[in-house]
């Protein structure tokens, strides 16, 4: 908690004018912005316990693993948490040391040795930041759904290590993804925690800025955690159209006065964490105020409980709706069961096989299949290959062989680079299938446009995604958005198991 400030007064003459100046020092907790110094750290990973392969440090190195001004150059202007936090600190004129910032694509549980290596690197980078002088604020950017072998609560453990190193005199502010599972230890280790409110996560930069604003405030703020006990299915957590939209809007309405921030996190169901599930975080000046707000949120959640568990139809069940919708314009079909952003492998072919059999004009992204990419490379542009699937297979032309490397242009992860390794564009008549060697999600329309595919000429745009695609694709889906479940590793039905 923040203790009472010590105040000293001085008379200063500047340009012939006398100013009465006050210097305020808070002995434990926050220091005024004018004398603030910040450290920014990041360790970001969403882990599915259903993924068959554990994640190593090498996967963090492939996405990003950097410190210092390299981080600002790469992410300072992006629309993610790092971009929001760094921009807000710069605008507040707060000197900032940037320690280790690292992340990897969503995947499996992190190997114990690799997690400990990453944690040691982060803590070592903190030591280096502290060597240049004391700090007043520390910003730790986490996901909230990281799993690591040998640890029940790896992110809570890491936050507690950070807190132990810097002591109670530094205000610790932690950011969390909308899909975070929040432990009590994580809350105890921080002063302020803010989660994303929207899914698709188009508010990450805005929420990062808000985190800085609250952390630099001179108010005695604390974040309180309220676990709902509800494990909702991820397709029903989206906040554009579904039941979660009203819940997100309610949290906005409950903010004000002594209650600085309210967020309701959807949680990540593909986890073995004992504390998984939806969590309400309330940042306020007193526990009583936070309790009252949380009670309203919990009551609202109970009213939409059934809608949060509504099943997604299988591909076969959804086909009649897809065919009927095509008469109204482009239909966007999302395979929620094999989402590479939710632990899916990206190689399930059920939806693709049905689209080929329909003989419609479609574009499909991405089928993650390194062996098939190699076959396409061997055949060369203009060649023909056989695409074998669990449902049979089909013949396809090799249209092009691009590297799957492009930037998002839509609101979701705007400006960030997507790297799917060596890829291939296959043609089945006028339809196009995008292959990648690495797991990558089609967040926005540039997943097609960057490789010369014009969605205006298609009847169906098919993506492997749960909700992030909605931020960019909804506006062009004149025939509507239809979800299907191919029963891959991100299937809501598997999460229930």
Task: Explain what this protein looks like in three dimensions.
- There is one protein chain.
- With 497 residues, this protein is an alpha/beta fold.
- It is 29% helix and 27% strand.
- It is built from 15 helices and 20 strands.
- It has helices at residues 57-63, 69-75, 81-91, 112-130, 154-166, 184-188, 204-215, 243-253, 287-303, 315-325, 350-358, 370-379, 446-449, 470-473, 492-496, and strands at 5-14, 17-26, 38-44, 64-66, 96-103, 137-142, 171-176, 192-195, 222-227, 259-265, 279-284, 331-335, 362-368, 384-389, 392-400, 403-407, 417-428, 431-436, 460-463, 480-484.
- The strands form 4 sheets. Strands 12, 13, 14, 15, 16, 17, 18, 19 and 20 form a 9-stranded mixed sheet that branches. A 6-stranded mixed sheet has the order 4-5-3-6-7-8, sandwiched between helices.
- A hairpin with a 2-residue loop joins strand 14 (384-389) and strand 15.
- Helix 3 (81-91) crosses helix 7 (204-215).
- The longest helix has 19 residues, at 112-130.
- It starts with a strand and ends with a helix.
- Residues 1-31 have low confidence and may be disordered.
Quick structural summary:
The protein has 497 residues and is of the alpha/beta class.
Distance between the termini: 41 Å
What composes the largest sheet?
9 strands, mixed
Mean pLDDT: 91
**Total E-strand runs:** 20
Structural class: alpha/beta
**Beta-strand content estimate:** 25-35%
State the share of residues found in helices, binned by percent.
25-40%
The total count of helices amounts to 15
CA gyration radius, whole angstroms: 24 Å
């Amino acid at each position: 908690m923040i203790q009472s400030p010590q105040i000293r007064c001085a008379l200063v003459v500047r340009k012939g004018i006398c100013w009465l100046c006050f210097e305020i020092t808070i002995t434990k907790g926050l220091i005024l912005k004018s004398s603030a110094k910040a450290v920014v750290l990041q360790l970001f990973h969403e882990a599915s316990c259903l993924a068959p392969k554990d994640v190593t440090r090498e996967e963090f190195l492939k996405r990003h693993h950097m410190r210092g001004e390299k981080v600002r150059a790469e992410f300072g202007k992006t629309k993610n948490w790092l971009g929001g936090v760094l921009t807000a600190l710069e605008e507040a004129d707060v000197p900032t040391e940037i320690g280790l910032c690292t992340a990897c694509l969503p995947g499996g549980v992190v190997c114990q040795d690799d997690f400990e290596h990453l944690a040691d690197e982060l803590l070592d980078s903190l030591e280096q930041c502290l060597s240049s002088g004391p700090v007043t604020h520390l910003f730790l950017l986490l996901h909230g759904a990281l799993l690591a072998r040998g640890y029940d609560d790896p992110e809570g453990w890491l936050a507690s290590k950070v807190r132990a190193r810097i002591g109670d005199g530094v205000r610790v502010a932690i950011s969390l993804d909308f899909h975070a599972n929040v432990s009590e230890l994580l809350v105890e280790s921080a002063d302020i925690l803010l989660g994303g409110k929207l899914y698709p996560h188009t508010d990450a930069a805005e929420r990062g800025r808000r985190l800085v604003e609250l952390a630099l405030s001179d108010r005695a703020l604390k974040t309180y955690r309220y676990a709902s006990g509800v494990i909702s299915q991820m397709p029903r957590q989206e906040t554009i159209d579904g039941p979660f939209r009203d819940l997100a809007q309610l949290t906005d309405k409950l903010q004000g006065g002594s209650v600085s921030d309210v967020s309701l996190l959807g949680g990540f169901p593909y986890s073995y964490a004992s504390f998984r599930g939806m969590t309400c975080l309330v940042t306020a000046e007193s526990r009583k105020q936070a309790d009252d707000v949380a009670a309203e949120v919990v009551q609202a959640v109970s009213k939409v409980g059934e809608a949060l568990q509504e099943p997604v139809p299988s591909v076969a069940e959804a086909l009649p709706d897809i065919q009927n919708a095509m008469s109204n314009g482009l239909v966007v079909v999302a395979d929620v069961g094999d989402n590479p952003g939710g632990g899916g492998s990206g190689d399930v072919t059920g939806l693709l096989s049905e689209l080929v059999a329909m003989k419609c004009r479609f574009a499909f992204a991405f089928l993650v299949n390194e062996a098939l990419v190699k076959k396409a490379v061997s055949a060369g542009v203009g060649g023909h290959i056989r695409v074998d699937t669990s449902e049979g297979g089909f013949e396809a032309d090799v249209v092009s062989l691009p590297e799957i490397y492009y930037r998002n242009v839509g609101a979701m992860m705007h400006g960030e680079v997507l790297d799917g390794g060596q890829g291939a564009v296959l043609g089945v008549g006028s339809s196009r299938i995008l292959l990648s060697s690495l797991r990558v999600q089609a967040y926005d329309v540039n997943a097609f446009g960057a490789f010369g595919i014009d969605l205006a000429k298609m009847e169906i745009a098919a993506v492997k995604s749960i909700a992030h695609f909605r931020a960019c694709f909804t506006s062009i889906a004149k025939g509507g958005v239809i979800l299907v479940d191919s029963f891959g590793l991100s299937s809501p039905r598997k999460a229930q198991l």
